[in-house]
Amino acid sequence: MTEKIRILVIEDEALVADDMSEMLTEIGYEVPGIADTGEDAIALAFKHLPDLILMDINLLGSMDGITAGGEIRSRLGIPIIYVTAFATQAIIDRAKKTTPSGYILKPFNERQIQTTIEIALYNAAIERQLKERDQTIRTLLNTVPDDLVLINSERKIIAINESMAKKLGQMPDALVGKVIGDLLTSPVLSDMLSRIITSPITGRSTYFEEEWNNRWFETMVYPVADRTGTNIRIVIQSHDITHRKHLDEKLKEEGISQIGKNMEQFQILNDQIRNPLQVIKGYLSLDHTKYGDAINKQVGIINNLVTQLDKGWLESEKVQQFFLKHRPMFNKSFQEQNEEVDLQ
Predict the structure, then answer these.
(1) I need a surface site. Which of 98, 285, 308, 341 has the fewest CB within 10 A?
(2) 142 Cβ partners below 8 Å, 6+ apart?
(3) H helix intervals, 36-179
């Protein structure tokens, strides 16, 4: 069984409140409570958490309906429809600041009430979906340990994750809408990144590695095109690779040291090979039958040495291939990297 939509009625005139409650019940809604003051309206909203509130602007007590509605909207997000006999521009301007879901003028009929409520509930459902989508996007952004920021063609921040916002010393919501150029002097954005994001937008993406504030970062800057192919947004993703750089440097140093040791060993082996070869040459000048066992022994020594030499060369080749495979891209110029990476 589908649960009924629950609507609070906030009205200072008892007869009007009863009439409105009866009308809502006949339409098929549930009225969990009625109040005639702003304070009671807030209390009922927290108690029942209704789907919608019909709020009269003029209420008993010191708090009017707009103040109460603004409090409920900001704290609970419940849609509010204001009901009043007065519609001055000043009242409307105050009401708009609380983002109401509708506005009904007295006197009203059942059809007006029902239509306004249906539209308000539909818009509230869309609003919840958008908030859920935004929350999902924000959650996904924050699951990535990298610094992420999305800016539009005007260089204004559309979205930013907590990692980047934390480095800027502000909350993500406080940064949305700001021009990223205003942050270029911060310790987060390097000179190279500043130059890229302030350059004219093209269809090209850029990848680079750089040292900044005693740390290493790899950064990707790439445009996001709309359906027409017009570049309207830019994604900036920066990843701290300081640990990897230190590890690579350590491996490089160890690899170079090992290559040197291998080469020294190769030299020793070469010297050791020459001695038995010289002996063999001497034996060959004599009667090879008499000295056959001795020659075979020396050949065995040479074979063992050659085997060790082969192993040494194989290890050196592995080290060499490692350095070729992990050749750092930061040795390339910024312009060369720019020309290599292109967003299609």
Answers:
(1) 285
(2) 161, 162, 163
(3) 38-48, 65-76, 89-96, 110-143, 162-168, 172-175
Rounded to 5 degrees, what are φ and ψ at 141? -60, -40
pLDDT means over runs of 10, the chain (344 residues): 87 92 94 95 96 94 94 94 87 91 89 93 90 75 76 82 78 82 61 69 72 75 74 77 72 63 66 66 62 70 70 66 54 42 38
What are the distances in angstroms from CA 86 to CA 92, 244, 294? 9, 68, 121
Q: Which of 63, 87, 67, 83 is nearest to 75 (CA)?
A: 67
For residues 76 and 43, is the Cβ–Cβ distance under 8 A? Answer: no
- In b/e form, how buried is each residue of 274-307, taking b as 16+ CB within 10 angstroms? eebeebbeebeeeeeeebeeebeebeebbeebee
Distance CA 73, CA 45 (A): 10
> With contact defined as beta carbons under 8 Å apart, do 29 and 4 qualify?
yes
Q: What is the pTM of this model?
A: 0.54
User: Do 251 and 275 contact (CB within 8 A), yes or no?
Assistant: no
